[in-house]
């Protein structure tokens, strides 16, 4: 089931989320809904507060692999870089900010099993972005923290370049699909 994504200004996005105590049927249902909602948006990641649920849980999809992170914690970081970033809760904008290039995250997966994700690049960025959501931070809050008032000049209207690239790839895929094949 698709769930509405709340936008900047909604209290759920600006509050520290609670730990998930048990991955029961309602949490499983929430995970399924969040994956569906993320794909429909489309987005690289979605945190529970973005659908108005104040729990420490997020989903990410990078290179066709879905990551479900429950009660995640960043346990190791590397050097910083400055990628472009956008957020489904701040539609129509993007900005550039400092993120760690690599992170190691400890979390539970959808089965409740403890797991560790060693990530770099887009996946590492998405992990930091989603974990920020669980602490009540949006990327624009990080931009403000990192560059003070100058952040406003760095905040750009229009979708992030990455999204445009993804859209183009999607279009090419559609063009390449042989006639008669049913889109998945
Ligand atoms: Co976001």
Write up what this structure looks like.
The two termini are 17 Å apart. With 184 residues, the chain is an alpha+beta fold. It has a 5-stranded antiparallel sheet with strand order 1-2-3-8-9, sandwiched between helices. Helix content is 32%, strand content 26%. The protein has 5 helices and 10 strands; from the N terminus they run αβββββββββαααβα. It binds cobalt (II) ion. Cobalt (II) ion binds at residues 87-89, 129, 133. Cobalt (II) ion binds next to helix 2.
What string gives the helices and strands in order? HEEEEEEEEEHHHEH
Mean pLDDT: 89
Give the total of beta strands.
10
Indicate the proportion of strand residues. 25-35%
The gross shape turns out to be globular
Report how far the terminal alpha carbons are from each other. Answer: 17 Å
Judged by helices, strands and strand pairing, the structural class is alpha+beta
Strand order of the largest sheet: 1-2-3-8-9
- Bound chemical compounds: cobalt (II) ion
In short:
By secondary structure, the chain is α+β, with helices and mostly antiparallel strands. The protein has helices at 25-40, 121-134, 139-147, 151-154, 161-176, and strands at 45-47, 57-62, 65-77, 80-81, 84-85, 93-96, 99-100, 102-108, 114-120, 156-157.
């Amino acid at each position: 089931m698709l769930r509405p994504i709340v936008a900047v200004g909604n209290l759920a996005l600006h509050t520290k989320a609670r730990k998930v105590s048990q991955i029961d049927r309602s949490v499983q249902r929430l995970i399924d809904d969040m994956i569906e909602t993320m794909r429909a948006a489309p987005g690289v990641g979605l945190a529970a507060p973005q659908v108005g649920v104040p729990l420490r849980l997020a989903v990410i999809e990078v290179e066709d692999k879905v990551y479900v992170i429950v009660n995640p914690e960043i346990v190791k970081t590397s050097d910083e870089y400055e990628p472009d970033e956008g957020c489904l809760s701040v539609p129509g904008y993007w900005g550039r900010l400092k993120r760690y290039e690599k992170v190691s995250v400890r979390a539970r997966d959808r089965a409740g099993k403890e797991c560790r994700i060693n990530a770099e690049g887009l996946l590492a960025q998405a992990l930091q972005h989603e974990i920020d959501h669980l602490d009540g931070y949006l990327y624009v809050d990080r931009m403000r923290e990192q560059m003070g008032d100058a952040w406003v000049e760095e905040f750009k209207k229009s979708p992030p370049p990455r999204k445009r690239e993804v859209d183009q790839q999607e279009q090419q895929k559609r063009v390449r699909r042989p006639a008669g094949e049913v889109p998945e």
